[in-house]
Write the C-alpha cells for this entry.
Amino acid sequence: MTTQQTETKEFQAQTEQLLDLMINSIYTNQEIFLRELISNASDAIDKIKFKALTEPELIADDSEFEINLEVDQENNLFIISDNGIGMTYEDVIENIGTIAQSGTKEFLRKLKQDKENIDLIGQFGVGFYSSFMVAEKVTLITKAVGEEAVKWESTGDGTYSIEDAVKKERGTTIKLKLREEFTAQGDEEDFTDPQTIKNLVKQYSNYVRYPITMEVPTEEGTEVQTLNSMTPLWKKNEDEVSEEEYTEFYKRNFTDWQEPLETIHWSVEGLVKFTGLLFIPQTAPNDLFSPDFKTGIKLYSKDNLIMEECQELLPNYLQFVKGLIDSPDFSLNISREMLQNNKQLKVIAKNAEKVILRNLKKMLNNQREKYEKFWQEFGKAIKGGIYSNPDKQDKLVDLLLFSSSHLEEEKTTLAEYVERMPEEQESIYYVVGQDRTSIENLPQMELVQDKDLEVLYLLDEVAEFVINILGDYQDFEFKSVLREDLDLEDESETEEEEEVEGLLEKIKEHLADKVDDVRLSKRLKSSAVCLVSGQQGLSMSMEKVFNQMEQNLGQAQRILELNPNHQLFTTLQEIYNQDPEAETLQEYSELLYNLSSLVEGFTPEDPVEFTTKITDLMSKAK
Ligand code: ADP
C-alpha cells in the first residue's frame, strides 16, 4: 500500500485509555521503558533471523545485528534503532495503533476489574506504550525488507499520524522527545545522560543476545561502546565458566563483597524449561529473619530481567539463597500477582528447592568443614524450615547439626549420633541451654554425665521446637534431660517410705500454685534440688521463648525434684519429723523453688523477698 499524504487516525478506545494512564499516572518506575524498547528491538531481530532461515535474501546486506542507542542532550532526545524485521504500513496500524498484544490486553482487563488500582501499571510491563511515561512525543520510523518505510508519530493525545517516510536500511528507529523532567533540566532520572543509560542497560538488559551499542564520551572524545555483555554466564556450560567468573558475577550482581560459599548451576529441559544459577552466601545478612528481608532471587525470561526479589522462586526457609532463574516460559509482562498462581513457577520452585537440598547434603558428606560454616550461618533457617513446614521434616532432618556432650569442636548429625549409641540405649538425649559451660553445670546433667551418655546440646531457641516436632529419629525417641521420666534411673532404688511421702506432700502443699509435683530425684548426684518440665507440652525453655516474644501460651508443667542423698534433704526431713506444720518448712519450700527456677533462668517472682529470706537465713547460721 502506498499513501502520499499524512493520515491522522484515532487510537482505539482501549489504547487511549492506556496512554492516558501512562502519561498521567504517578508511576514510579519509568526507567523500565528502556527495557521494554530494547526487548522489542531484540524480538524484531529474532524475527528476521528466524525468517531468514527460509528466506536468506532478507539479510543479504550482511550487516551485523545490532541495537543502537543515542542521546541528544541539546534536543532532549533519546533514540533507539534496530536492524530487525521492521514493520509495514499495515503492521504499524495493527501493532502500534491497536492493542492486540496479550500483555496489554491482560493489563486492561485487570484494570477494568479494579479501576481504582493504579498500582496495576507497575505490575504489568506494557511494552511500546511505556515510552509515553517519559516522552511527550514518540516518533517511529520503520522499514520492512522490500517495503516502503513508514513514519508513525504521536503525542499520546488520542490520535497518531502515519505517513510514508524515507529510510534506507531495514529495521525500526524510535525517537523519544523526552519530557523535561527526564532530562538534565528535570528532577527525575536524566535519560539523556549516557551514564544513566549505560547503567540501565547493565541492570535490565545486560544479557540481551545482540550488541546494544552507544556512542559515549571518553577522555579522547567519543567512542562507540557495546553496553551489554550479551552471553549470559548462566547460558554457558558449567565447565566453560571459571570459578573467578562465577565469583565476579555474583559480587557484581548480588551486592556482596565476599565470594559465595557455594555456587549451584543447572538446567532443566522438561515440561518447563529453565536454567538456574544460585549462590549460597558466606555470611547470613543481619536482617535475614526480619519481616523486611529482601530476597536476592531474580527472574529472567529469555535473558531479560523481568523481576527482582522474586521470592516465589524459593520456599521461605531458603530465601537466603541468591541468584537467578531464567525461563523462556514467562512473558516479559508477567505481573507479580500473576506469578503467585503460576504453575510453571511452582514447578521451578520445587525443583530449585530439591537441587539446593541435594547440594547441601553433598556438602555435608564431602566437605564437612564447609558445611559446618554453612550451618553456623544458616542453620537457623533450616531449623525454621522444619518448624514452619513440618511436612518437610523428612527432607530436612538429615541436614541438622547439633553440638554434643561427646564432641568438643565439631557438630554431629542425628545419624552419626545414632551410629555411636551403645546398643542398649533406647533414646536420643538432649538438653537445652545457653552454652556448653552452663549446660554442663546443670544439676539435671549429673546422672547422664555419670553414665557417660551422649547428650545433644540445643543452644538456640529454635532447636528445641524442632526436636519437639520431630518427636523421634529412626524410631529413637528424643528425651530431654530437663523433663520428668528420663527412664535412666536405677531400678534398684528403694521405694519411698511413708515419712518421705509426708514431707513431699507437705512441700507440694506449700508450693501448690507453683509446681505440679514434688518428687525424689534419681538424676541428681551432688546437687540438692532441681526443676524439670513435664513429659509433654511446653518445656520451661520454650515458655521462656514465648515470654520473650510476649506471647502467653501458658506455663510448662513444673516438677520439683529433691536429692534424697543430700544433707539438705535430711535437714528437711528432721524439721518435718519435729513438726509437720513448721513455718520453716514453708519458707524453705519457697526458697528451694526459687533457687531451682533461678537455675532454669527464671527470676524469682519477688526478688526482694527472696533476697531477704536468704540473708535472714545466713544471719541465723553460725
Ligand atoms: P509486546 O512487545 O508485548 O508485543 P508492544 O506494545 O511492545 O507489545 O509492541 C507491540 C508490537 O509492535 C510488537 O508485538 C511488535 O509486533 C511490534 N513492534 C514493537 N517494536 C518493534 C520493533 N522495534 N520492530 C518491529 N516490530 C516492533
